[in-house]
Amino acid sequence: MLTNRLYGVVGYLMMACLLTACGRTTSRGTYVWIEVPVDGLHVLPGASVQVEGHAGHAEGIEQIEVWINGELDGVVESPPYADGLAHFIYHFMPESSGEHLIQAVAFGPDRDPSNPDSTRIFVSEEPTSRPDLAITRVEAFVVDELDSVPICTTQLELTNAGETAVDSDFEVRFQMDGSVEAPSILGRGLASGAAVEITSTTTFSETHEIVVLLDASNQIEELDEDNNEVTVLLTCGEVSPLEGPTPTPEADITGRFWAEPAEITAGTCTKLFWDFSNVSSIIFGGIEQELQGEYRACLCEDERYTLSVTHLDGSLEKIPVDISVTGVCATPTVVDSTPPPAPAPQVPANGLTLSCRSYQDLTWLPVSDPSGISEYQVQVERHSGDSQWAAIPGSTFTGIGGKTLNISVECGWYYRWRVRAIDGADNTGSWSSWSSFIDSLG
């Protein structure tokens, strides 16, 4: 699995020098992130690529620079700014096939640049690889107790087991005893190897048959379309792990994939090698490779790389190699003044009508930050039908260490909620957009 950091420390420092004159301190009060395209997206030759994202600074954003393959391609002047964030859109036409590195740099009113955010696209006639949604865990999750009887919801963990990111929205559907609840919609961008948890809005006690469907409408072209459905009996209060698929016998490998050395010190480099014959194709890093090749990797932490082999009979085999890294990379002491990005509300889905209930889980997608995330904060408001929003008792919930908050709700009320993150350096991020739901008798 290749990530942005695999461009290496040297490439990143070259970009930083180019943008900051290698001596000027970069302002951590300005930040930027790219939302579109998702990393690893495949693009056909001749297609226009839209680069879209947000940038933030307490006093506004003057401009966004867009760099393609280490060269300045264009500038977005005075992007629209609201609620502490600037939104930018930029289009460019890739001039050649292959891999292209896209980077964005934001400038605040004092011309202090942000650190660059990066993503990659691959331009070729046909996709070199595809995503693969897979269910990895389904279990009963206790959320309440009634007369000493536990009350549960269904918690699902899914992953993208493919080699490219999911490039469009998809549905997740829960079904209990034949009754189907409204789908949860996950947005595009689930990276290769990434996992996410989703909680059903239906509560239950005792034992029930639960069916989970991923991408039932086939919006995603996947490597394997047969691992998107599971049926399991769940008993509230008992652990009922999902049984994985029956492993297939390991196919004979015509060649090998290895690293020399397989254990390195943080900040140093190793090489991965592959040598195959009598196979149809080799894919590494999302790109088809020669049957013999090598790749140099400089790492600061353990990493797993996967090479895909298509055999002459058409079968696909994935071969992993693990690199063990000891120690830590030396990093300069930098005061982190950049707030974390806004989390994305996930459950309940925005606009969802719930069957009358007393409690509801609010779940969001967690975010990352160089200083780590110390807590999440959630605000909840409601009205009884007159659109006069008012804070619920407690209003703002603080000190949340996970990604779920269970709140008390009341039948017949309209609710909306939003969430923000605070990093380990006490930088407070922006609030997410409001997400609403109705607790109704139906």
Strand content: over 45%
Could you tell me the radius of gyration in angstroms? 24 Å
Helix content: under 10%
The secondary-structure class comes to mainly beta
What do the pLDDT scores average to? 80
First and last CA, distance: 46 Å
Shape: globular
Assembly state of the chains shown: single chain
Summed up, the helix count is 1
Main pleated sheet? 5 strands, mixed
The overall strand count is 33
With strands numbered from the N-terminus, the spatial order across the biggest sheet is 2-9-8-4-5
Keywords:
442 residues, mainly beta, 33 strands, disordered N terminus
Can you give me a brief rundown of this structure?
By secondary structure, the protein is mainly β. Helices cover 3% and strands 52% of the residues. β24 and β25 form a beta hairpin.
Q: Could you outline the blueprint of secondary structure elements for this entry?
A:
Blueprint: H1 8-20, E1 31-36, E2 41-43, E3 49-56, E4 63-68, E5 71-77, E6 81-82, E7 85-92, E8 98-107, E9 117-123, E10 133-146, E11 149-160, E12 170-176, E13 179-180, E14 184-186, E15 195-204, E16 207-214, E17 229-235, E18 255-260, E19 263-265, E20 269-276, E21 279-284, E22 287-289, E23 292-298, E24 303-311, E25 316-326, E26 344-347, E27 352-355, E28 359-365, E29 373-383, E30 390-400, E31 404-408, E32 413-423, E33 435-440
